[in-house]
User: Fold Glycosyl transferase, group 1 domain protein from Candidatus Thiomargarita nelsonii.
Amino acid sequence: MHIRPDLNVKFIIQWNMEIFLLDGTQLKPALSQKVVFLTSALSSEEYDDYMSQTDCMVLPYHRQSYYARISGVGVEAATAGIPIIFTKDTWMEDAVSQYGAGIGIEDKNALDLAEKIELMVSKIDEYKEKAMARAKIAQTYHSPDNFLKCLWG
Assistant:
């Protein structure tokens, strides 16, 4: 097991349902100061507040589900200049390479995810700088004007 209690990171995880451990006991909404589970829907104001606190968006989507679709929250992260940890060989990888910044992980590989989180934390300023520099590209790509241009040719 790979444990790093000294890692300077806080996880805020939105999971809109009860969480149960393998033994069937229910997990409490907050594990510690470093891990917080949000178990209900957020208001727009709450969502905006959490986004403004986010240094990195971790999106370990399964490839089978996200091979041919993109994440709305991933687009929001890119347009806000937030680096992303994403699953390789998905449309998220294409999006990040076009207008974002981040690190790819292997599908369904928890150890790779943990290693990439450590890497992101160790180089967060570098990734945030690149993400902020590319945010304008993401904003332009996802703008109403670009949508109409694509729609009408």
